[in-house]
Amino acid sequence: MGEADCPYYAKAELLADYLQKNLPDFRIHKITQHPDIWEEWLKDLCKKNRWSHNKSPIIWRELLDRGGKGLLLGGYNEFLEHAQLYYGVTSSMTTELMKRVAQENLGTHIEKELEKESLKGLVNPLQVWITSASSLACYHLIPILTSGEVFGPQMEISINLFDNKHTEEKLISHKQEAEDLASPCLQSVSICTQAEEAFHGAHVIIILDDHVDKEINSLEDCIRSRAPLCQLYGSLIEKNAHNFAKIIVGGKTFVNLKTALLMKYAPTFAHNIIAVALGVEGQAKAALARKLKITPSCIKDVIIWGNISGNNYVDLRKAKVYRYESAIWGPPHYSRPVLSLLFDREWVNREFVVSLKTLTATGRQFGGMLAAHSIATTLKYWCHGSPPGEIVSLGVLSEGQFGIPKGIVFSMPVKFENGTWVVLTDLKNTEISQQVMTRMANDLIQEQLVALGELANFQPYQSGNLLDMKFYRAAIKIVLKYVLKQNHYLNKSNPYFITFQVNY
């Protein structure tokens, strides 16, 4: 090793190359340093190995099969003596050639350093933005994101914590703890309290349950309070985010509504905005596991339909149990239908339904761990695909699948593959009764209308009741907007018809 422009290093290098070429077990490793940093680098090396050497080059032997530190040979003269003594080889390089090679070495060294710097610039970390980052969910989410399980162990990430100015102290605390993790996947952590700087260069945006500063006196006020924030986030996403950013809405407060509003205010990214339903799915699996006295992870393919944070339907018709201890036993891939093991149908139809309805009531918060885990798992599936053959519940924009009204964000069964999701429309025996579908769709449409100021009061759905025709006219408007948006490439000379049926 030596200074890049050192003539004696050039002569030693030529001799070492000759030995390596002609001796079968002789291997060399060459390192050059720029003249500006050579002395400091040499001093640190000698201090580390307890050597005494003060000129270029420095040469040592390493016995790879024995371990331990290297054996210092010295400089060029000592290396030449070693080569003559052991191998009977010497160097005949002239002084003029030494100087010319030394200058070439310096030029090559500078070129390599510039190339390294340019390559570093190409390897940009994944920019992950988290809103409401002072929340407990964010605190639990950070260690999962930095573990390498979500984006892959080779993917470096940069986490940006975004919240309002009043939470700055907590954001700083989150930042310091994240840095203390010393994760090899985490390149940097930053905090942001200025809205205009939010989502700059974002590749992934995680929308957590937002803070509401003012007092909310009614459900309608709570719904309407979401619109301005989603409008702000939408405009910032359009302005600052990366072109192919993934946007994931988690938590337990009007998740479907916030997803729909973000699609409205960030239309460029509408196809890449999803709502997390795995939290509700996890709660359902845990309730079933307690009843069956098994581990929740043994239950698969529970489907959550409808409003993730409100009126939904937990579908057990496809649910399976693996590794269930009973008289019937099979290999790890063997499963049995959940409904065939639940003999207490009274529990399924009453206690199970009531407990989940309480857990998923509008505005009820998830625990921090559940919210974080469900978001991280959904992101992992989005990046790497969901387990083969497994059904995942996800809130996405309806295109009329399963008879769901178009233009609303609805939780339905999907699978993740190739960096996107596919709605599982080929599932058999998944028909939902008209009454259940109307109940779920009614609430989602009303939430959207109230948030946009097109409906004054939210009216919970009741079977057999005739709702205000103003609601149906507004609902028709949503469907019309969706259909027109989907068909804006159609030629005006090609007419098409839209049928909207209202069942009382």
From TrEMBL:
<dbReference type="InterPro" id="IPR010945">
    <property type="entry name" value="Malate_DH_type2"/>
</dbReference>
<dbReference type="GO" id="GO:0016615">
    <property type="term" value="F:malate dehydrogenase activity"/>
</dbReference>
<comment type="similarity">
    <text>Belongs to the LDH/MDH superfamily. MDH type 2 family.</text>
</comment>
<keyword id="KW-0560">Oxidoreductase</keyword>
<keyword id="KW-0816">Tricarboxylic acid cycle</keyword>
<dbReference type="GO" id="GO:0006099">
    <property type="term" value="P:tricarboxylic acid cycle"/>
</dbReference>
<dbReference type="InterPro" id="IPR022383">
    <property type="entry name" value="Lactate/malate_DH_C"/>
</dbReference>
<dbReference type="Pfam" id="PF02866">
    <property type="entry name" value="Ldh_1_C"/>
</dbReference>
<dbReference type="InterPro" id="IPR036291">
    <property type="entry name" value="NAD(P)-bd_dom_sf"/>
</dbReference>
<protein>
    <recommendedName>
        <fullName>Putative malate dehydrogenase 1B</fullName>
    </recommendedName>
</protein>
<dbReference type="GO" id="GO:0006108">
    <property type="term" value="P:malate metabolic process"/>
</dbReference>
<feature type="domain" description="Lactate/malate dehydrogenase C-terminal">
    <location>
        <begin position="284"/>
        <end position="446"/>
    </location>
</feature>
<dbReference type="GO" id="GO:0016616">
    <property type="term" value="F:oxidoreductase activity, acting on the CH-OH group of donors, NAD or NADP as acceptor"/>
</dbReference>
<keyword id="KW-0520">NAD</keyword>
<dbReference type="InterPro" id="IPR015955">
    <property type="entry name" value="Lactate_DH/Glyco_Ohase_4_C"/>
</dbReference>
